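Self-study notes.
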Amino acid sequence: MELPIYQVDAFASRVFAGNPAAVMPLPHWLDDATLQAIAMENNLSETAFLVRCDRGHELRWFTPAVEVRLCGHATLAAAHVLFEHLGHSGDQLQFQTLSGELRVTRAGRQLTLDFPATSLVTAEVDLGVCKALGAIASEALMPSENPHALVYVYEFERDVAGLRPDFAALRVATELCVIATAPGDECDFVSRYFGPQIGIDEDPVTGSAHCALTPYWSRRLKQDKLQARQISARGGELACELRGARVLMTGSAVTYMHGTVAGL
């Protein structure tokens, strides 16, 4: 069996920027062990698998190590593939996922994700986590339900930019991924995402993190529309909007390559 595969740079307007994701449209679901093996072989932060269904497409995401419940950049990449390569004629897509129905709309080259907002509660600033990150945070938060990541808040963009995590120590310090964030110098807020627990030391651009960051910074800055930058080495930009219990994230994507997975 041979299957098509696309590699897309998401939240980017050019190749070699944003966050690369693999996208594989499937005629039917393969077994989970095969999906995980493909994601491990791709060795990208996420591989998105798609199967057409009555309500659009079923969508699943795998890191090289685990399946995840929500992924923004690989959803953006999947939508890009459907619009640009697979002939989807409308301007809206529906995805059935472990996090419920997700929608993506197209306006020119811009794609907008409609994701559930994540509410945060106060957590304790863990000095072990801070030591592993390389700087002490001023505030810590975590999702109120199904916690998957800690949010550590810093005073300045330079604090987040200057983090040099010890990833082995971070795996010992917490079972959760860590999002570091601060006010931006030239945007509303910046962030970085560290996930050695799920096989991703640092994720270049993390849409799902902004489901939590957008409500937090919206309340703090008293505005619903926000410009965000993830200041990883590759970097990425997102236009975010809090709309009730939903977060809208807008960005673009570029195809880096496409080909065939053979030998399955």
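Second protein, same conventions, sequence then structure:
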Amino acid sequence: MLYHLLFPLADEFTVFNLFKYLTFRTGGAVMTAMLIAFVIGPKMIRWLRQWQGQGQPIRDDGPESHLKKQGTPTMGGIMILLSMTISVLLWADLANPYIWAVMLVTLGYGAIGFTDDYLKVSKKNTKGLPGKLKLLGQLVFAGIAAALIAATQPDSLNTHLALPFFKDLLINLGWFFPVFAIFVMIGASNAVNLTDGLDGLATVPVIIACGVFAIIAYLIGNAVFSGYLQIHYVPGAGELAVICAAVIGGCIGFLWFNAPPAMVFMGDTGSLALGGTLGSIAVVTKHELVLAIVGGLFVLETVSVIVQVASFKLTGKRVFKMAPLHHHYEKKGWAEPTIVIRFWIIAVILALVGLATLKLR
């Protein structure tokens, strides 16, 4: 909005020329989302606590340490979504269709998560929205976004998959591309959701991943930089750096209240939305496989659940004491802060590996 309102005035007021620069608007998006989250956080937490009463239902079969968290309100993801949405509307080029494709997934998945959280709180159990309905909703939003992305990108890119470590190598997936894109968005969404089990555990890795993809989007959307790095150029993709920045700002503001001991939980409202954001940005930038590296922590958590379920069904035995993986270490006696910080370190290492793929080609 500010881009469209103020940049046209640059001929008369030179200072407004700043809005031309993506880096300036990206910085503005971080600060705006963070400040909004800081301001609305206390009031929102009080409102959620009054409305929810006993807060998020705690699983009876979960780690014993989680029982002391009874009464902590959930749906804190509303804080992130509200702050990032306002920030994006203020700082992004709203004529860019990629902005709307990513925000469709973000807010659509946020609505699904909100419904799930609402049912859990209102019915005071951990079941929430039936899995099939949740998956159907994710499929619809991801399908629309995939179609919009494919229609926006040039024919040389719209149905192609890029491979990291290879210069300009694109594999044409043809009709299978929308299926693959939908899988990436849904997979990323649910992977972040599975990781969100400890205070701050999902928030910081999301911040790290968004930081990496802000850089990727900026480079991919710049003809000069993409040419220098010998990676594919996606016109207009650079604008997604603003969304990444807004997510970072919103998550930092949320983390202020979510740091141990948490005053509020993100809930599916936030985790499903943030995972969907990462997945859709990866699809636009043609870095879907790099997302699996940068978000390797989320992949690891998801694989632990798959392995646990498969092992129990096939052999009747469990590989882990409890899945997802962070619960396994809780059962082994690791302190929650130890698990969270060590997982953050893993996320940083994987992010650096993902960034390295930009040059190692």
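Instructor comment on the second fold: The chain is about 65% helix and 0% strand.
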